Amino acid sequence: MGGSEQAALHSGSLSLPVTLPLVLLALIYTRGWYRLRKTLPNVIPTWGLGVFVAGLLSVWIAIGSPLADGDHERLSIHMVQHLLLMTAGAPLILLGAPVLSLRYGLPRFGCRVLASLLRCSPARTIGHALTHPAIGWLAGTGAVIGWHVPAAFELGMRSYAWHEIQRATFMAAGLLFWWPIIEPRPGVSNGPRWSVPLYLFLGTLPCDALSAFLTFSDRVVYETYLSGSQLDIPPLRDQETAGALMWVCVTFIYLIPAVVVTIRILCDASDQVEETQG
């Protein structure tokens, strides 16, 4: 990585190219959300705008705010960024049902182009394949485990380009992982709802394995943090903190939708029994 790229990476001067696209997405979504609320109020929830913007804000905090500079100094900061992208930004964005709102928020020409693209058979086939639960689980697991293999992790820390690819991978994997759970396109389902709790449980396993490895390892896994300042925190202690953060956050964040879906399934089953008996 060149000297100018290294300086840009650590100074936060690249935050503008992150901020502007996120602001543009927020404006397009807001326009589409407003139009849908006026014409089709039952299609998009009133709280959709809030959760979508909260998702974009999570992404900005992770990669566009001053926090973005700290992942070369502390593994725990890297872990916070990782969690913000995959377990906060991605699900919040999908909860806002972004496909419809972004489509209706585009100018007329862009709306027609996007509508044609979504209707064409190859795009629908690819989209259906990418949003399959198996692909979502593999994407989430691959991003979590793959980028934390020491050789891959160090590559991301040394190279600006690979660092950005790492972040983009976390975000894309998060969207693919959460899509089968949230199902942001009305009327389009990728599988039975009873499979969601099992899917989430399986999703915690690679995170639990990685967090346990980081927390209980008796050595610093990544050389990057041996030479950093660590802000007066011993590298091994910082690594333990990163592992604990992953374990606690993933456990609770995955547990919440699993419980919600389970309760809904049980309530629906109870209603069906009452209707049958009645």
Report what the structure shows.
There is one protein chain. The chain is mainly α and 278 residues long. The N terminus is likely disordered. The protein has one domain.
* Uncertain stretches: 1-13
Strands, count: 0
SSE arrangement, N to C: HHHHHHHHHHHHH
End-to-end span in angstroms? 71 Å
What value does the average pLDDT take? 87
Short description:
The chain is an all-alpha fold and 278 residues long. The chain contains 13 helices and no strands.
Salient structural properties:
278 residues; mainly alpha; 13 helices
Task: List strands and helices in order, with pairings.
Elements: H1 3-11, H2 15-39, H3 48-63, H4 75-95, H5 98-105, H6 108-119, H7 121-130, H8 133-146, H9 150-158, H10 160-182, H11 195-216, H12 224-227, H13 235-277
Helix pairs in contact: 2-3, 2-5, 3-4, 4-10, 4-13, 8-10, 8-11, 9-10, 11-13
